[in-house]
Design a protein that fits this description.
ten-stranded mixed beta sheet, 17 strands, five-stranded mixed beta sheet
Length: about 575
C-alpha cells in the first residue's frame, strides 16, 4: 500500500511539472561604461525623469510645499545634490490670458488747479476754526493763542518765501540769456573738416613725459621788490603806474632761435615746435568758453603751432567762465574792452613790482633775441627753450617765459611769473567786493576768481609749470571808480606755487599732457600743409580744418617778401654754423 501510494505521488508530480510553463531567462543588457540599462524601455519612454543621486537619503515620499522640515539642523538632511525638485514637474498654465484685464485701483491724481483749491479751502476752514477758538477763549489764554497763531503764520510765510526763492533761482525768466558768440575767425566754405573733438572725449586722456632738457636761455630779468609788496594792503593801496616798455609776443615760426634749433644736428629728433602760451591754450582747452584759433603748419616731418598775426590770442579774457559773463556789445564793460584792460593791467603790474634803479637787472649770457633797434626799453623777460621727449621719440621744443627773479633767504634767486587779477565791477561780475573782503577773506576772493576765470588762471598755471617757475605772484588790481577803466589801484599781492594752484583748481597736469599729445598725434597723421584748430564759440567742441597755404596771409604778399624771408633763413643758418 505504501509503495502504491508513493508511486501515485511521483506520477502526480510528473504530470504537474509537465503542465507548468517553462522558465525563460530575461535578456540581460551589458553596460561596459557604467551601471544600469543602456536603452530606455518602451514602457518608460517619454516619462518625466527626476534626477537623483545614489547618496540622497530617502526620508519622504513627496513634499508638495517644500517647507516640511523647518528645523535648521535637519533642513538639508534630505536635500538632493540637484536641488529641491526642479523645473520638471512645475505646473504651467496654458490658458489664453488675453481676455484678462488689469484694473487700476490707485487714487486718481487731481489737476493742479483743483488741488490748490482744496488746499486753499482747508486753510480757510482752519483759519475760521482758529477765529472761533479765539472768540471763545479770553484773557491770557486768548493772548497766548494769538501769539502762537501769529508765530505759526510767520513761520508759514517764511517757508513760502524760501520756496519762492528756490523756484526763482531755478526758473528765473528774467535771467539774461547768453547771446550766441561769433567765431574768432570766419570759417570759409572751402575749408575741409579733418576732425571734430568734443571736450567730453578728452577727460580720460593721460600722459606723463620725462624730465625736460634745457636747450637755450636768453634775455634779462629784473628783481622782484619784496619790500613794496609788504606795504600794499586795503588801507594803503598803491596806484597802478603806466610804464613805457616793449613787450614782444612773437609767434613760433618768427622766432630766430627756433629756426636755428630746427637746423641744429643735435635737435634732429625735434619734430614739434610751439610757445608756452599756445601749448597752454591746447592743454586747457576743456575750460574755455570763448572762441580761439591756432594755425598748424606741417612742413616735411616738422610741426609748427602758430598764432594768426591779426588775432586776439594774446589778450586776456575776463569773467569767461562766470555764471553771467559780460554781455555788453560796446562800452568799457564789453568783452573786447575788458580783455584790453586786463592785458594793460598785467603788463604794467609786472613792471611796477620790480626793483628800480641802475644795476638791478640780471642779464643772461644770451641777449633778448627779439630786441632790435626799436625805440623804448624792453620789458623784463627771460626765454627758456625746453625739450620734451614724447612717444615714438618725438621731440617737443617749447619757448617758455619768466617775468622776474625772486631773492631767497639762502642768498640765491629763483625764477617767478607775475600776473594780475583785475576787478571791474563786483555787482555786474557777481563776485566779492575786494575793497571790503580782500584782507579778511582772501581765500574766498581767490576761490571766486578761480571760478569766474578758470580758463585764464589754468593757462597761467600751465605756463609756469612748463617753465619750471617756483612761484606765481598774483596782484589784486581794482578800478578806482567802476565807471572809469583808465585808473586802477593795487589792493594786495598773493604768492602761490604752480602745482598747488593746479591742485586747488582741479587741474590735472597728466590729463593736460594727454590732451596735447592727442592733438599732436592727430596733426602728425595729416599730410604736409596748413591746418587750423578752431574752438567752437557756442559748443564745447574743437575742430581741425584743412585750409589753403595762402590762408591768413596779407593780400600784399609778393615775390620780394618771399625773397626777403629766404635771405633771413640764410642769415640764420650762417649764425647757427658760426
Amino acid at each position: 500500500h505504501m509503495i502504491v501510494t508513493r508511486a501515485l505521488h511521483v506520477h502526480v508530480a510528473i504530470i504537474t511539472m509537465a503542465e507548468k510553463a517553462k522558465f525563460v531567462f530575461p535578456q540581460i543588457h551589458d553596460n561596459p561604461f557604467g551601471w544600469g540599462p543602456c536603452e530606455v524601455p518602451e514602457q518608460f519612454k517619454d516619462t518625466p525623469y527626476q534626477p537623483f543621486s545614489k547618496d540622497d537619503r530617502l526620508g519622504k515620499v513627496a513634499d508638495w510645499s517644500g517647507n516640511l522640515y523647518q528645523d535648521r539642523r535637519s533642513a538639508n538632511k534630505y536635500g538632493s545634490v540637484y536641488g529641491q525638485g526642479g523645473q520638471t514637474f512645475v505646473y504651467h498654465h496654458e490658458e489664453d490670458e488675453s481676455s484678462f484685464q488689469l484694473v487700476d485701483t490707485a487714487r486718481i491724481q487731481k489737476p493742479q488747479h483743483q488741488r490748490s483749491r482744496g488746499k486753499y479751502n482747508q486753510q480757510k476752514i482752519r483759519r475760521d476754526r482758529e477765529r472761533r477758538e479765539e472768540r471763545r477763549l479770553g484773557g491770557k489764554q486768548q493772548q497766548a493763542k494769538g501769539r502762537h497763531t501769529q508765530r505759526d503764520r510767520e513761520r508759514r510765510q517764511h517757508q513760502q518765501q524760501r520756496k519762492m526763492q528756490q523756484y526763482g533761482r531755478r526758473y528765473d525768466r528774467n535771467q539774461p540769456q547768453l547771446k550766441p558768440r561769433a567765431p574768432s575767425v570766419p570759417v570759409s566754405a572751402e575749408w575741409e573738416v579733418i576732425n571734430e573733438i568734443e571736450f567730453s572725449q578728452l577727460a580720460k586722456l593721460n600722459y606723463s613725459p620725462e624730465e625736460p632738457e634745457e636747450l637755450h636761455l636768453c634775455g634779462s630779468l629784473g628783481y622782484y621788490d619784496v619790500s613794496r609788496e609788504k606795504k600794499i594792503s586795503l588801507k594803503t593801496p598803491q596806484s597802478l603806474q603806466v610804464y613805457d616798455r616793449v613787450f614782444h609776443k612773437v609767434t613760433t615760426t618768427d622766432d630766430p632761435v627756433i629756426r636755428r634749433l630746427v637746423k641744429r644736428p643735435s635737435c634732429s629728433d625735434c619734430k614739434v615746435f610751439a610757445t608756452d602760451a599756445i601749448l597752454a591754450t591746447l592743454m586747457t582747452c576743456g575750460r574755455s568758453k570763448y572762441s580761439w584759433d591756432i594755425v598748424v603748419q606741417r612742413v616735411g616731418d616738422h610741426l609748427f603751432f602758430d598764432k594768426r598775426d591779426d588775432s586776439q590770442f594774446d589778450f586776456l579774457t575776463v569773467s569767461e567762465t562766470a555764471k553771467e559773463p559780460p554781455q555788453e556789445e560796446s562800452g568799457i564793460n564789453s568783452p573786447p574792452s575788458l580783455a584790453m584792460e586786463a592785458t594793460y593791467i598785467n603788463q604794467n603790474f609786472s613792471q611796477q613790482t620790480l626793483v628800480e634803479g641802475k644795476g638791478q637787472v640780471y642779464r643772461l649770457k644770451e641777449p633778448n633775441p627779439f630786441a632790435g633797434e626799436e625805440s623804448g626799453q624792453v620789458a623784463s623777460v627771460a626765454y627758456r627753450y625746453m625739450k620734451w621727449r614724447l612717444k615714438n621719440d618725438v621731440g617737443l621744443v617749447v619757448r617758455c617765459e619768466y617775468d622776474a627773479l625772486l631773492p631767497t633767504t639762502q642768498g640765491r634767486s629763483t625764477y617767478i611769473n607775475i600776473k594780475a587779477l583785475n576787478e571791474w565791477d563786483p555787482k555786474a561780475s557777481g563776485g566779492i567786493d575786494w575793497r571790503k573782503k580782500l584782507d579778511s577773506q582772501r581765500g574766498a576772493v581767490l576761490a571766486t576768481e578761480l571760478k569766474n576765470n578758470s580758463c585764464k588762471i589754468a593757462k597761467w598755471a600751465m605756463t609756469a609749470i612748463l617753465a619750471g617757475s617756483s612761484f606765481i605772484k598774483f596782484g589784486y588790481v581794482s578800478r578806482i571808480h567802476h565807471q572809469d577803466s583808465s585808473k586802477h589801484e593795487i589792493l594786495g599781492v598773493q604768492q602761490v606755487k604752480p602745482l598747488e594752484l593746479a591742485q586747488q583748481m582741479t587741474l590735472d597736469v597728466g590729463n593736460a599732457w594727454g590732451v596735447l599729445h592727442a592733438i599732436i598725434d592727430t596733426c602728425r597723421e595729416q599730410p604736409p600743409g596748413k591746418y587750423l584748430i578752431l574752438k567752437d564759440p557756442n559748443k564745447p567742441v574743437v575742430r581741425i580744418y584743412k585750409v589753403p597755404m595762402d590762408a591768413f596771409e596779407g593780400s600784399g604778399g609778393s615775390e620780394d617778401e618771399s625773397e626777403e624771408a629766404s635771405e633771413e633763413e640764410e642769415e640764420d643758418e650762417g649764425r647757427g654754423e658760426t
